[in-house]
Amino acid sequence: MAEKSKRSSRRGAPTEPLSETMLARFERLIPEDERAAASEAAQTLTLPPAIRLNPAKSAFGTIDNLSARYGWTAAPVEFCASGYRLTEAAVAPGTTVEHRAGAFYIMDSASMIPVSLVEDSVFAGKPLILDMAASPGGKTTHLVSASGDRGLILANDSSAGRIGALRKVLKNYGARNQLVTNFSGDWIGEWFPERFDFILLDAPCSMQSLISIDSHPMRPISEREEAALAERQSRLLTAALNALRPGGQLVYSTCTLSPLEDEAVVDSALKRFGRTIDILDVHRRLPRPAPGISAFGSTTLDQRTERAVRLWPHRFKTAGFFAALLIKKESAPDASSPPAFRPFTKSGCRLPTAAEERETAAALEDLFGYDAAADVAAKEGTLVFRDEEVWAVPNRVLSEFAELPAKSMGMRIASRRSVGWVADFDWTTHVWGQIGAEKIALDPPEVERWLGGQELQRGDRVRTKGTNLFLTDRNGVPIGIGVVSGERVRSLK
User: Fold this and answer.
1) pTM of the predicted model, to two decimals?
2) pLDDT tens track for 418-472
3) 136-149 per-position pLDDT tens digit
4) Which one of 80, 205, 255, 349 is the catalytic residue?
5) All domains of the chain, ordered by start, with CATH?
6) CB of 1 within 8 A of CB of 172?
7) What DSSP string describes 423-471?
């Protein structure tokens, strides 16, 4: 799913003077022989759109057939195996049916670095993962892919206004094992002391990245505001480290190059937690040098901060970015008793009775042409009702987080309407290969009309009245679900 906050296109000329102002602040951090290149990049570098493929929906298109289909020239993102920069794009990636089906996510290539730094072994098994400031969800979907959608991801954001975008992105991507919450990150360590196997803290920051992009437009910032941000980031990092289990790992990242918000925040955590935490050196995972810094101005930091990653635009052809991978070596309890949560039964969800479960399982099998209920159970999930909707909810949510006031959990499968059971399109794209129900391929003009909101002529190919016609383009990519109404096929949204 493309979100405004994750697109990577260059803004216009008004940012150039600001870029130069920012560069002047940071130039002493850049080797002298690179300063001219840094200045040129700040003024002229244009960032192409970038995408990260969804391995769970690879049947909808590899980078090669997508490029051939849409006139793309794709260059691999050096530090992300599933990431590609589209240096030429005859068709905008956000307009394709594959994007609608969740086959890839559009995001700035620099934002692919936090999850890419982590060894695959960290996500082995069924990890409990926390994305502490998750909206709009680009990095959360990267975590879904890195973990194979096993375990459970708690995707939290403190902004109620951003939760809708997060839910939409995860739904489109096909994330099953997720729980979306909305509370202050400052409470994480108190509510879940030493609980998580991996934590991502992509912290709110001043966005001083030298390259202004739609997701992170640069703006002037005062020293007072920057100091306040650094204080907040330090609080969040402390809370995250309190929530991290011994042996667990954590990525702290920002889209700013300000050392006060980057290395200085990490240095503060090193001092606070002492020998219980450390910074891992991840530079072998990068194609060129990107060391953190251990001194700026009159400030000297712990030398281990050089193990962090600092993406300068002139070196990596990305917006500026910072990331550090930390490990918790031993227990460091620093948390109060967890507060009470709202009971699960008041969240709008309920477990079905045995009879309802049998009835619903039969209805879903008739709807999809495969045993959806057995599929949910095999993947350690449970059918849960929410009003007239049926959801696949991870068992782990019900056993460990049942009292947490959740904004969403798992995936919606279908809803009951006047016409009967109606399949959820995003669930459909997630299990497309398993669906045994009839699929109807549309020609390109019909696809265009359908995606434009128009109804279609029934035609001879549709012989059965009723709901849930699974529609595809001529390449077999799902584009929607329709219902026969007289001589027309109308959309079921």
Assistant:
1) 0.92
2) 878 999 999 999 999 999 988 889 999 999 999 999 988 876 666 565 678 899 9
3) 999 999 999 999 99
4) 255
5) 113-328 (3.40.50.150), 343-418 (3.10.450.720), 438-493 (2.30.130.10)
6) yes
7) E-HHHHHHTGGG--S-EEEPPHHHHHHHHTT--EE--TT----EEEEEE
Token reading at 457: 């002529």
Exposed / middle / buried, residue 441 (Cβ in 10 Å: 0-12, 13-18, 19+): middle
CB atoms within 10 A of CB 275: 9
Round to whole Å and give the CA distance between 154 and 294: 33
Q: CA nearest 8: which of 87, 65, 69? A: 87
**255 an active-site residue?**
yes
Give the type of residue at 290: A
Q: What is the dihedral of CA 295, 301, 307, 313, to 10 degrees?
A: -40
**Tokens read off for 461:** 């190919």
Are the C-beta atoms of 216 and 445 separated by less than 8 Å?
Answer: no
Residues paired with 466 in a beta bridge: 484
Structure tokens at 429: 């794209």
